[in-house]
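Quick one:
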Amino acid sequence: MKKLFQFSKLTVLALAGTVANGHAQQKTAKPNIIIVYMDDMGYGDVAAYGGIDYMTPNIDKLAVQGMRFTNFYSAQPVCSASRAALLTGCYPNRIGIHGALVPRSKIGLSDQEETIASTLKKSGYFTGIIGKWHLGDSEKFLPLQHGFDYFFGLPYSNDMWPVDYDWTMVTDTTKWRGRIPPLALIDGNKTLRHITTQEEQSMLTTWYTQKATRFIKEHKGQPFFLYLAHNMVHVPLAVSDKFRGKSKQGLFGDVMMEIDWSMGELMKALKETGQENNTLLIFTADNGPWLLFGNHGGSAGGLREGKSTTWDGGVKEPAIMRWPGVIPAGTICNKLAANIDLLPTAAAIAGAPLPARKIDGVNILPLLKGDQHANPRDHMYYYYQKNSLEAVRQGEWKLVFPHRYGSFVDGVPGVDGWPGKSRPDSTGLALYDLRRDPGERYDVKDKHPNIVQQLQQLAEQAREDLGDDLTNRPGRNRRSPGTL
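Output:
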């Protein structure tokens, strides 16, 4: 009996060791990384950030299970520039990308630039993008030529098609819309079909979600990177039958509810395939709301202005990140972070080398782990237009430089998918304390001349490095985009 007991004890210990080793292997396996990137979603468009009259329970659950950022920024307040920043870890003006590239653009993302996808491939990741690309629509510029193994989606924004605001075809070639090509749905490098109707637009979120959940299930045997770039909530808004008329906020709320459903499907697929605990899931957006479109344009959550401006309403974004066992659940991070930080953070997680060329992002993994003393991002530059340095932030202080912009304050907002009118405006030099004045209403530069001087010095470093059209500085370290 004694020998039997000893044998049983040893067996239990051996089994325990086997289980422990299994857990160790699971813990040390390279985690999957998923970035869900919304289009034109403002700081106030998610319930966890103050969105009202529609429910986003899955995104709210993500926030409860992960970390919600309150000072997360896009590098620029417009489509192509923001996406270039996210994927390369660079201020987009460093790599020659600005604005929103039009169909048949002669420029695009250079093949000399490394992306998150090409960086992670060095560590054995399978990489995919589903949704909006918008970094050049010629085959030379498409995702498969920039480190992605898989692409299904649109080459640019869903409003870049020969269809008017009333959903009728535009055939008059004297108008811009009448001269652009049909909106292509691309699989790999080939056009699968053209999107020509409201009904087809209404299926985009569903199609993307189906492709994304299939991607998760098919690649569970190796680490993967998935970039799910929704075309919504960019106008024209469109929603499937399953959510049409479901919210109290009209079509915009319906679309947000469908996006929330999509997030739920992703989370379900991760759980069902046993990958929930080994996946960093990130939910954020490219720039602030397009206020020009009124009730179809979303909310900046009380921040000043919106898309196409470097006031915080244009560049401050919701950002929620979940990684069970690494990111403390139900936490809030008030530290400064940006979309350009996701590449170096992903590289650190995967053990991949950083790009050979200079990047501007920093590794925010210490923030994700809950290190309250970490402060990896000391400051942030607000560039817009081709290469205009319009502001700089350090800590709670934001110094705005004199520049002109299109304002939505006292403008005429659009209704039901039709654009309104903005008005030209300008600002002089101004200092804002974003901790006490997140709406950027009260200029306090006369009370804090030392802070103004400190931020001016930071701006000079940027002008020397990246240049500044507002002060006619070319910069020493700017690179050219890809060209045809």
